[in-house]
Design a protein that fits this description.
Layout lengths: L6 H34 L5 H10 L1 H10 L5 H21 L5 E6 L10 E3 L2 E3 L8 H11 L2 E5 L2 H11 L3 E6 L1 H13 L3 E6 L12 H10 L2
Parallel strand pairs: 1-4, 1-5, 5-6
Antiparallel strand pairs: 2-3
């Protein structure tokens, strides 16, 4: 005895198959564009790439691993892409409405600064580059905070209500920070540490100085 298929379930089944195929095609195209952007530092169809990175991140990374490529490329390109999209609006934001967040792990091991409700209070002892970076940025009009974690950042953002943020951190922190900026309608720029960790981390300070000067 043959069983008749309910037309509704048939339509649902076909729709699911088509949806999976469409998502797979988007992921493949997004992966190719991401790989191209990583090699050439040129962004083609940035909004499409951002969509594929944001919505289909796990699938895109799986495709990179499938062909033996480093899936960290997806994060690198995603951050660079968000930075590029936000840069013009960041630069057009009054400097007094911008905030810079530096992670406390950039401090020297013997740093004498103390924690306050506004983050670590740098005393410009000269043991690390933070003191000089802070002075340079504040001279340009930025508000600079040295923070021990993301909870501090969220609280300070609620308190000071900036329009634009420059955040420094490890890959995971920068990704989360840029996503937070997107949700709060802030213009976010992220700089990834050259060496992450809990202490004695490294940042390309030349890149930091070049950015705050180029942003005006």
């Amino acid at each position: 005895m043959a069983f008749e298929t309910d037309p509704i379930f048939a339509i649902i089944g076909v729709s699911v198959v088509y949806a999976v195929i469409i998502l797979l095609v988007i992921a493949v195209l997004g992966s190719l564009l991401i790989a191209y952007s990583f090699r050439t530092e040129r962004f083609i169809f940035p909004n499409f790439m951002l969509f594929s990175i944001t919505i289909l991140e796990n699938l895109v990374k799986a495709l990179f691993r499938l062909v033996g490529a480093d899936d960290g490329i997806v994060d690198d390109v995603g951050i660079a892409l968000r930075n590029k999209i936000s840069f013009k609006k960041f630069r057009n934001t009054p400097v007094d409405k911008r905030m810079i967040f530096l992670p406390q792990c950039l401090r020297a091991i013997d740093c004498p600064s103390k924690l306050s409700p506004e983050g670590m209070k740098c005393i410009n002892c000269g043991s690390c580059e933070i003191g000089n970076a802070r002075k340079c940025a504040e001279a340009l009009g930025y508000r600079v905070f040295i923070v021990p974690g993301s909870s501090f950042i969220k609280r300070l953002v609620r308190k000071h209500k900036p329009t634009a943020i420059l955040g420094v951190g490890c890959m995971t922190e920068v990704k989360a920070g840029l996503e937070m900026c997107q949700k709060l309608n802030l213009y976010g720029i992220g700089l990834v540490l050259d060496r992450a960790g809990c202490v004695s981390t490294l940042l390309n300070w030349d890149e930091f100085y070049e950015f705050i000067e180029a942003a005006g």
